[in-house]
């Protein structure tokens, strides 16, 4: 029994006093106003507008195509888009809203935002429609 207790104390001491590597990962989602470099679509604003108009609103009726809505998403450190939501859904039907989300998910990666020289996660609001 004494050997078992001594063995358990040895394992406890080894775990308690061993070195641990501190990971300083910043997963904060920043507002665009505090950035040094804002995120941008890698292929340019004109190409982004083309993707939205041709793939996102192509099947919308003319009156709803002019309706203002917004896409809210996070541009990740690697340029991918996550947590995509469409705001103003009353102006865009649910099926089209899902289509807009799918279109945004299929876009090429963005250029990520930077703060203090480091790539950071950024909350981005993209106006859709006219």
Describe what you observe in this structure.
Strands 1, 3, 4, 6 and 7 form a five-stranded mixed β-sheet that branches. Strands 2-5 form a two-stranded antiparallel sheet. The chain has one domain (23-128). The longest helix is centred in the first third of the chain and has 16 residues, at 2-17. It is elongated, with a radius of gyration of 23 Å. A hairpin with a 2-residue loop joins strand 6 and strand 7 (118-128). It has helices at residues 2-17, 45-56, 62-65, 94-105, and strands at residues 29-31, 40-41, 69-75, 81-87, 110-111, 113-115, 118-128. The protein contains four helices and seven strands. The chain has 130 residues and is of the alpha+beta class.
Describe the structure concisely:
With 130 residues, this protein is an alpha+beta fold.
List the helices and strands and how they pair.
Layout: H1 2-17, E1 29-31, E2 40-41, H2 45-56, H3 62-65, E3 69-75, E4 81-87, H4 94-105, E5 110-111, E6 113-115, E7 118-128
Parallel strand pairs: 1-7
Antiparallel strand pairs: 2-5, 3-4, 3-7, 6-7
Signal peptide: 1-18
Keywords: Signal
Organism: Flavobacterium restrictum
Query: How much β-strand is present in the residues?
Result: 25-35%
Would you identify the regions where 5 or more consecutive residues have pLDDT less than 50?
Answer: none
- What is the general shape? elongated
The strand count comes to 7
- Strand count, sense and closure of the main sheet? 5 strands, mixed
Indicate how many domains the architecture comprises: 1
Structural class: alpha+beta
Number of helices: 4
Radius of gyration: 23 Å
Averaging pLDDT over every residue, what do you get?
80
Which H/E pattern describes the elements?
HEEHHEEHEEE
* Gap from first CA to last CA: 78 Å
Binned, the helix content reads 25-40%
């Amino acid at each position: 029994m004494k050997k078992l207790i001594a063995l358990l104390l040895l394992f406890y001491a080894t775990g308690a006093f061993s070195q641990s590597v501190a990971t300083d990962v910043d997963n904060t989602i920043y507002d665009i106003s505090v950035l040094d470099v804002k995120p941008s679509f890698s292929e340019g604003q004109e190409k982004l507008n083309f993707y939205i108009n041709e793939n996102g609103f192509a099947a919308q009726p003319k009156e709803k195509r002019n309706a203002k809505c917004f896409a809210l998403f996070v541009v990740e450190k690697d340029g991918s888009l996550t947590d995509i939501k469409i705001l103003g859904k009353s102006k865009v039907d649910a099926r089209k809203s899902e289509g807009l989300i799918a279109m945004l998910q299929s876009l090429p990666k963005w250029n990520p935002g930077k703060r203090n020289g480091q790539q950071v996660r950024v909350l981005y609001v993209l106006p859709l429609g006219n």
